[in-house]
Each structure stands twice: as C-alpha cells, then as structure tokens.
Amino acid sequence: MKITGIRATTVAVPLEAPLLHSNGAHWGRFVRTIVEVEADNGLVGLGEMGGGGESAEAAFRALAPYLEGHDPFELEALRFKIANPTASLYNNRTQMLAAIEFACIDLIGKHLGVPAYDLLGGRIRESVPFASYLFYRYPGAGTGTGSGSGGTPEVRTPDQLVAHALDLKKRHGFTVHKLKGGVFPPAYELECYRALAAAMPEDRLRYDPNAVLSMDEGLRFGKAIEDLNNDYLEDPVWGLEGLRQVREKIDTPLATNTVVVNFEQLATNVLHRSVDVVLLDTTFWGGIRPCIKAAGICDTFQIGVSVHSSGELGIQLATMLHLGAVLPNLTYSADAHYHHLAGDVIEGGPFRYVDGRIQVPTGPGLGVTLDRAKVAEYAELYKELGGYAYDRDPGRPGWYPLVPNERWADPATALTAI
C-alpha cells in the first residue's frame, strides 16, 4: 500500500453558543481542517487539524511530494520525513504530522480490517469516561436547551453555571465537571466553582484558568478549594517554574496542557516536578503514538495522565477514544468540547454519551466515515463566515489579556448576544 495523494477541506461547525475562555472566545463555531490521505488500493484515511482556511489547505497540498509513494505502515519514517526535529524549527509541522498520522493509522486499520486500538497495543476498556466541559458563554440562537425561545442561554452567574452543569449531567451522565475559567475575577470564579461543588457534592471537579492567574491569586485559589472533591487544578499560573512554586504550597494536584506538550518538557517535569497530571493531546503531541509513548513515561515516574480537548470534531474525537482505549494509566476522565457542538462531519451524527462515557469505535481504522453532505454544508459555512480570532473576545472589542491578567470581564454585566 502506497500513498497517492492528499486532500484538505476546511469546515466551520456551529456551536450551541459562543464559548468564553481566558484569552478570548470560540465565536460560535469550530473551524477545523479535514484531511484525506489516499492510497493506491482505493482506501482513504481520515485526519483532522484545528484551524484552517486556504493557507492550511495549501500547506497540506504542499506535503504531497513528501507523501507520494510512502507506505502508511512506516509511521516512524513519516515522523522524520515531515517533522524532522531540526527542520521543524523552521516549519512547525507537528500538528500537520498529527493529522497525517491519524489518516495513516486509519488507512492501516482499513487495509487490515482491524480497529486502530488493535494497532496501538489492544483495547483494555470499551468506553472512555469524560468530564463535562463548562464554559462561561454568550447566549446562542441555536439548538441548545434551557430557554423558552429555543436558544441557548448565557452562562455568567453561579446559578446559571449550576443549571448548565445539572442539565449536562442529566443529559449525558457526567460525574466529573471542569470549569474553564480565567474570564471573570478569580474571587468571583471561586464563588462559581464552590457553587458547583455544593450542587453536586458527590461529583469531582476541575478548574482551568489557562495560566492567567498571578502567583498570589493562583495560591489563593488553590488554598481556597482544598476542602473540595477536586481532580486537579489545571494551569493556574504560567510556566513550569510558576507551577512548581504553587505545587509546593497547596495540597490539590496540579495539571497542565500548556507547558508539557513535548518530550523535552516532560523530561524537565520528571527531573523537577511541577505538575502531577499531564493532559495528552493527540494533535499537540504530533499524533496518537507520541501520546502513548508519553503516557508510558508518565507511568514509570508516577505522573498522572488525562486526555486534552482542543475543539475536536468526530475524527479527532475518534483518535482520543482509541488513545483512551489502550492506556492502562488513564485514571482521570478525558476532556471534550464535543457536547457543545451542534453538528459533526461523520456519518451517524455526533458520538453519544452514555453515563458520561463514549463507546470506542470498533470499525476498521478510526471507525468513522465522513458524511459528505455535512462536509459540503460546513465547508460552505466556512466560506461564508471565515475564520475567527481565537485570542479575541467579540463582546469586548480591542481587549486582550495580560499574563498574569488583570483585565477581567465584569460579572455584573449581562453577556450580550453576538
């Protein structure tokens, strides 16, 4: 089996509502690039990368000469062919490599008639547990629940946040809840976090302000939640050294997805422990296989692992499910933005949660198939709406955060629909 070509299509898939985070917002849609790698036996492997547009599509097309004639089984050679560590200082192809690795694993599985997890060490769990991913958000006009008009209500106050969490728990069965913070002043978000704990005392919690708290605020927040049923405190401050200082002074485990995203940083965390849990991302790490390798290192040095979410559609979610299926040391529920989507590009529609878990696909390769009509629909939507500035908030023109931040949104002001 040899690769004969590659296609890339950028899509915009609507969200139930625009989602706020510490550095800006998701403006009511996820923009992703769908990658299709063709082989000489007629099979097509699927991949996915965040962001997109004509530049991403052109970048993938430019890799065709690297890929043509390459055997998809030769994944290690593929890594050096596309993302040689020295050459990558100039071309930064890690996320492109990940999308192509996904597609090659999909091709191999389809060629052999086996699911991806059988290529990755074998499945040890049939479904993967997920945490709810709670965002402060603008009101949406779409398909979400919670308002009489059929739109999706804002999430800004403690009561609104609790109502949202309880609704997700009822619909999807979540028993672990992650609050994406760093939007409002830390003392206010602490009030919201404690309201979640009071409303669901048997459930576990996580808080992630995306590293915008000062050292003082990070320590203050960490101390103030020590009595709660926390999984971990994720990236309260920026950098391995900042996290190490917080970790030395609080009892809650620390986690990161921002500053341990490659093997050099993982080695630093092994030698000088800054975090207790590493959130592995199949895109950020360059594929599923590097995540498995990193998980093995974490297992050796008793560092916890979870699975990070970077705004995935069904293809990348499938990679997360196959990763979760094979990791013996996945002791924390995975993250997913997935329940915020109002659609998907895969046949059968979005994956479904049952008791807070998603079943691992058992079909050949990644076990997902493109819904061509949906791809065409969402490609047209991308052409209509274009991309968006992830690091800007459309409700606060001209705003951008500092690190550490002091430019918080006003919790007393209702969020205006955009």
UniProtKB/TrEMBL annotation:
Pfam families: MR_MLE_C, MR_MLE_N. Pathway: Carbohydrate acid metabolism; D-glucarate degradation; 2,5-dioxopentanoate from D-glucarate: step 1/2. Residues 158-253 form the Mandelate racemase/muconate lactonizing enzyme C-terminal domain. It catalyses: D-glucarate = 5-dehydro-4-deoxy-D-glucarate + H2O. Its EC number is 4.2.1.40. One of its GO terms (molecular function) is glucarate dehydratase activity. InterPro entries: DgoD-like, Enolase-like_C_sf, Enolase-like_N, Enolase_C-like, Mandelate_racemase_C, Mandelate_racemase_N_dom. It comes from the Bacteria. This is glucarate dehydratase. It comes from Actinomadura barringtoniae.
